[in-house]
Amino acid sequence: MDLSVSMAVTTFGIVIYTICNNLAFRRYERLKNDYDVLFDEILKTKKWIRWPFLKRKEILRFPKGNILEITLKNPPLEFTIDKKDIKIDVPTTYEDMFDLPLGNYFELKKHKTQFMQQEFTKKNKKSVHYLVMSYLCLYDMWESIFYFRILRYFVYLGILLIATGAIIIVNPIDLLFTALP
User: What is the maximum alpha-carbon separation in the chain?
Assistant: First the structure.
């Protein structure tokens, strides 16, 4: 019985791991595509690139007591919604999917309908196109990060189930009692 239960748990873990890992990778690829579209097509400006060797916050200590404190901040995009300015960080790399606050996503989600209504009542349709496309692209980037983080937990669940299946096969308690006289 232990073998069949172990195989079922391990198989279920492998399925969860594989599916969720592939979906998370797709979300990361989508983030990269959105980033390219935002800077190349919508903003038409030079891309901001995070240097991967720099941590978000770091203190470097040098000889003779010199200290260099580094704080890395992604460039924000600013939107005005009913005379209130909101600043949303632009995610740029894989590391940003883990260390930028999800509050950016919830802020975009909270104001999405209100922002669209506000922009489509304006007279200048060209600026509306630019602002709405920027907002939608940034919203999609943050939505990808949100789902990526949820999917990562399911990937960890799959790994846990695989390990559990292996433990059921080995059953360390049986090994302990069979080793004793």
Answer: 89
> The dihedral of CA 120, 124, 126, 127: what is its sign?
negative
Regions in the chain scoring below 50 on pLDDT = none
User: Which residues, at least 6 apart from 125, have a Cβ–Cβ distance to it below 8 Å?
Assistant: none
Q: For residue 52, how many C-alpha atoms fall within 13 Å in the half-sphere facing its CB?
A: 5
Which pTM does this prediction carry?
0.83
Residue 80, strand partner residues: 85
**C-alpha distance from residue 60 to each of 50, 65, 96, 99 (Å):** 19, 10, 22, 20
Residue 158 and residue 16 in contact, taking contact as beta carbons nearer than 8 Å: yes
Kindly report, residue by residue over 21-50, the tens digit of the pLDDT.
999 999 999 999 999 999 999 999 998 888
Residues 5/174, Cβ–Cβ less than 8 Å: no
Map out the domains of the chain as residue ranges. Answer: 2-49+75-179
Distance, CA of 39 to CA of 14 (rounded, Å): 38
Task: Compute the distance between CA of residue 71 and CA of residue 111 in angstroms, rounded to an integer.
Answer: 28
Instruction: Determine the Cα–Cα distance for residues 128 and 35; give it in Å rounded to an integer.
Output: 20
Listed in sequence order, the residues at least 6 apart from 62 whose beta carbon sits closer than 8 Å to its beta carbon are 68
